[in-house]
Amino acid sequence: MDAVARQHQRADGAAHVEFKVGPDGRTVLGDLYQRAPCRVLFPSVESADTTQAVLLTTSGGLTGGDRTSVAIDVRRGAQATVTTQAAEKLYRALPEDPETMIQVGMNVAAGGWAEWLAQETIVFEGARLRRDFRADVDPTARLLATETLVLGRTAMGERFETGSIHDSWQIRRGGRLIWADAVHLEAEMLAAPFGFGTAVACSNVVYVGDDAAAHLEGVRELLSKCRVPAAATAFDGLLLTRLLCDDAAALRVAVVALVAGIRQLVAALPPRLPRVWYC
Fold first, then answer.
1. In this prediction, what percent of the chain has a pLDDT beyond 70?
2. What mean pLDDT comes out for the span 142-149?
3. How many angstroms from the chain centroid is the CA of residue 61?
4. Where do the structural domains in the chain lie, given as residue ranges?
């Protein structure tokens, strides 16, 4: 069998979603592009909440060599929430495969409110992930974003002992970089003192806005009720919260409570997440 015949089919999905303010003042869809396996759904929401988009991958998961790229534009004055239908699953990569690439880019224009509320990314044994989140937020706009990594399904007796994770964030306000962060870990490093120790799940929750520092104590109060190891800090228009836990289910409960609380605290939105989080 020649090399061409041995090649595996790989996914290269993309989606671009634009939200804008319609003639009646409500946020509506401005533009949409989607390429399999990426698909975008637009559920009905209650009047007090923001316009929502739900992303999913029709392939049922990703593996080595697969790529997805999502671009989200929230135009002037628009308010929108983008979430994912379920946890994204990263399966074992073959030795000759490149990493699984997941890219998310957000632009939030003047006066806009944007949320990126991704459900967990579950990294299976042997997976190799490179994930990149980038956002540019106008100085008068606000952004709430969360991402969670789960290292195998411990309830199923799974462990993440081989593979790698590279997870990076870059956030700009008005084009100026205010926060850059990257974690690169090989699976065998995870239990080391500089790794995750006994933890099997971690989450970042980020809020960007002029009032970020003013809400630090309120967020720390929310964290005190979450009962998982966590910490929060604020600087330069950004409020950063990190959570790390040896129980993925407990971490999920904490993230739901924290993000719902932040929505109410900073934007007077209903203290809940999109319905797909509760299915």
1. 97
2. 97
3. 16
4. 10-278
